[in-house]
Amino acid sequence: MKLFYRIHQSVTHPFYDANSTALWHDTDIEEFKKIIDDEIETIKRLWDTGKFTKIVFPGGDGVFSKNTKLTEERTPLIRKYLITKLQELNNYVNTQTNNQTTENKSTEMQIEYTPVGKTRQTYSIQMIGSDIKIFNKHGKEVFKTDSINRNKIRANIAIKLKKAVIVEHNNAKYVVMNDGEIISI
Questions:
Q1: Assign residue 128 a region: left if phi > 0, alpha if psi is -120 to 50, beta otherwise?
Q2: What are phi and psi of 109, to 5 degrees?
Q3: Distance from the CA of 71 to the CA of which of 29, 41, 117, 123 falls in 20 to 30 A?
Q4: Is the pLDDT of residue 51 over 80?
């Protein structure tokens, strides 16, 4: 990475003169932003290939040690920008990892529910990612299409998994999903 070569002055890189001081200064902020943005996008593209399982972010103050000279006193603008971009990259990687895990994860559970016009029953729920299959006590898949019953069971599942909460407003109850979707109950 170009940033690496600026930080580690003893290592040569074809883009930089080996005799230069190779230190970043806040006056270089626009060049720094371009390079960091390019590097972060490259890392994201590499991450999206699926060939990597983790990215190790430096712990503590590893990137900003006195050896790198990217200190708050010497380079506050560069330091702040780099921290922000590393946080964004960390969030991107974690979001992608969580999405991949959710897409491949299979969950099964039981939900008690009283369908419209019927008696209370226990349903077996099978979830793979965001796909939900609902089975009655005979093992037959039911509520395959969008309906009041399917939405209410989906709301129950979300509450059970702590992905939603019940909110009361004007004497009516609503299920509010973590992503902001509202389901009337």
A1: beta
A2: -155, 170
A3: 41
A4: no
